[in-house]
Design goal:
236 residues; Aminopeptidase; 2 domains
Length: 236
Amino acid sequence: MPYPLLDDCTPEHFPNPHGADAHGFVALSRSLGKERVIHAYRKGIFPWMKMDEPPFCWCWFSPDPRMSLYPQNFKTSRSLAKVLRQGSLELRVDQNFESVMRACATIQRPNQEKSWIEEDMIEDYTALHHAGIAHSIEAYEGGKLVGGLYGLAMDRVFFGESMFHYVPEASKACMALLVKLAISADLWMIDCQVYNPFLESLGAEEVPRTRFLSELAEACTQTESHINWKDIALRQ
């Protein structure tokens, strides 16, 4: 293969992300796995897609530039402020993680033929959720799930993976709650991976990969999150 194939026996091993190609491509792997995913995110690498043809490997990326949201830079639009003020959406934490992932996998997105969220990714990230690493924030209206986001939380970083909404402002409201939690726990940043105009409208910005990796090395030195997710979930 023209790119490094990761060894499943050593899930902690990854090529240096500084050596990624022009597209941010780092390596291939036959599987994901909890340990590999944890090590990857802490190194600034994430699985983005699975090959459509044999050998159906996962592709790992560390793009340059990197989209990041620094919590203090979050922008609240008038429409979002109105929804938050009215309280028309009920926001919860870690109550329906797998359903959020599946909604993110099936919702139609502009210029996207299919989702990168495969069944084995759902299985591994749900296992990470049960291990206290992956988390979801959900929006409900009349008891029905209408929006949400999920990602991994380690040390002072939240690694955002995907979000969805069925009603206006639902995913923004979830992001507003995430930012509130991030600020209260002194998180450094919310990783948004790659450029998206929607995320930019919320205050996210592109930063050079060298800067992102440097900040990540300082902000993510352990797997335990600064946010007490279990306590928040129990108090709902």
